[in-house]
Design brief:
alpha/beta, 12 helices, 11% strand, binds ligand NA7
Amino acid sequence: MPPQPIAFFGLGLMGRPMAEHLIAGGHTVTLWNRTRSKADGLGAPVADRPAEAVREGGLVFSLLADDRAVLDLFGDGAIAARLGPGGVHVGLSTVAPETARRLAEIHAAAGSRYMSAPVMGRPEAVAARKEHFLAAGPAEAKDRARPILEALGEGGVYDFGEAPESANAAKLINNYLIAATINALADAVTMAEKSGIDPEALYAQATGTLFDCLAWKTYGRQIVDRSYDTPSFKLSLGLKDVKLVGGLADATEMPSPVVSALHDRYLAAVAQGMGGLDWSGIARLVRRNAGLGD
Ligand code: NA7
């Protein structure tokens, strides 16, 4: 694949290692980040204004915090217009399906294309090229983006069809599974401790048998170790995702008491000042509620 002109927006925990790989892959990358200093030192030019990063007919990759950030940047259509015919915007953020629909309309009106490819993986997985992508959008956009996404993440690209918002819904459903897993693990590990069981012994038995999977092992380890102070994914963004899952449940009339319970738990953790912890940090709230220390 020849090098592609890529404008990369969003150099947060996830975006920075991904931009590094695109630059190392020989693409012509121009960076933009709201806090400019985070774009320094990567060996690629940094644009002063977002639209200046974009080449006509090129690619845009965006990996921003939330719906507001995405719509702040792309909502007025200026970047879509600059991309123009042949240009493709690949939205990697976890946002609401409505936001993806809106972006698709904005880009179509400008003659460019929008596809969603929300990324599954934590920053360390991105750095190790282990992430995977949930992709949906017009076929020609996916054909253009797929080799780049496949080179970024060994986990591969999973196709959810032509409507970009399907990939965003799929991503929210995956994050629901993670949040529900974290929640169950926080209860289980705390319950073990309250029952006089060594959490380490429970971890070894459970993940060595019935729960032998990456999500249980990764989050179980963090919860047993109580190591959530350095976030791989911020608890405040976890609340954002749980709210988005609630929105999806509402929009599709899919009642779920578990979604409501997760919302309460994440909201309580943020209200108690835990928004900057890793999202496995709701275990701290569970411990406090159970009369244990942090
Ligand atoms: P981070 O590390 O919080 O990074 C978020 C990025 O989004 C960062 O570049 C922010 O810029 C940027 N941001 C946030 N708000 C805005 C607004 N309003 N305008 C422009 N840019 C903004 O998050 P992660 O990297 O962990 O996650 C990124 C996505 O992947 C998210 O959807 C997750 O759910 C999954 P800053 O550097 O703060 O100026």
